[in-house]
Amino acid sequence: MNGPATFNVQTREGQRWVTISGDWTAISLGRGASRLSTALRGQKNVHFDLSEIGRCDTAGAFAILRAGQGKLDANGLHAPASVARLFDLVSHAIAAPSKPIHQTASLFGLLDRLGRGLFGVAREFYGTLAFFGHLLTVVGRLILHPSRIRWAACFSLAERAGLDAIPIVAVTTFFIGAVVGFLGADELQQFGAQVFAVELIGIAVMREFNIVITAVLLAGRSASSFAAEIGSMKMNQEIDAMQTMGVDPFEALVLPRFLALLMIMPLLTFVATIAGLSGGMLVSWGVLHLSPSFFMERIVANVGVGDFWVGMSKAPIMAITIAAIGCRQGMQVGGDVESLGRRVTTAVVQAIFSIILIDAVFAIVYMKLNV
Asked: How many folded domains does the chain comprise?
């Protein structure tokens, strides 16, 4: 080492010379850069003698060039060839103009974003198929060896992801049923057919709102939870450690979450049905003065069990969709927190979109089947 960064300002033959000595590197620079800038402030036609300089890196070269106000050239710089090349490189980097950001044409930009979006959808679809294929392989393996199923993890996840959601599911669907009752009573009273509000409440709650509201709430709770939990393990390389020890992450992490939602989704849908009918019954009793016994009689006589099973039949598909999206997005998390947040958000958005899409497909199928 040649010591810290120092300099000496002298006058030679009527010209201002600055002799640079010591190490001008990012580690040893210290206050040398600020002192040099202060000493040369307002000076013009300054020459630099770098023949005594020790080690120098881009930080030191930039400090000297900045002190010389970026006007150093070959005539004002006396230095060894290696140092001269370094200063030439840094000076060109300083003088290089910044490239302007070219705005793409609106039509071209729109088509570009559309193409990238379609390609992203195709890639996500392919990734989802690969995910389900791996999962089906694990399911087939565990059917042959059921003792390998982690039932403790399944029941723990079912309690945390399902049973703990009963209050919010019940309250939300109760008010949804009440809102449907208010709207039905207000509209049907204009035609003197307010008694048919009972059928409206029953069909709306038992066929659609019970499963849709439950699935959306689980998408916000469970899909995000699954993505965050598995994503955190992916960030901490715990999944890599599991694979190193010969443990399949799908068997240990993904399948228990699938089984947990498959077990708990029908129960939550049933709770949502009871709560929604209770909200509609309360509104019918308070607004239309229809007694609870009359309400239940019309539900049994005119709505029937078929509509109840239509709603319940969607529960397993919704559970599989929510678990698959949450777990897959968790597996796609990279090594930073930004990736984790982006994947958690994607899991919730994709789950809610898939729920609405699946419900629409079910509605079309049941309409064609006249169910």
From this structure: 2
CB 8 within 8 A of CB 27: no
What does the mean pLDDT of the chain come to?
85
Rounded Cα gap, residues 159 and 45, in angstroms:
79
**The token pair that represents 246 in the structure block:** 């010969």
Mean pLDDT of 108-121: 85
Do 301 and 171 reside in the same domain of the chain?
A: yes
In this structure, the answer to whether residues 81 and 152 fall within a common structural domain is: no
Closest CA to 66 of 87, 85, 97: 87
Residues 172, 173, 174, 176, CA torsion sign: positive
- The pLDDT assigned to 75 comes to 47
* Nearest of 298, 276, 287 to residue 184 by alpha carbon: 287
pLDDT digits (tens, 9 = 90+) for 180-220: 998 888 888 888 788 888 899 999 999 999 999 999 999 99
270 closest CA partner among 205, 320, 197 = 205
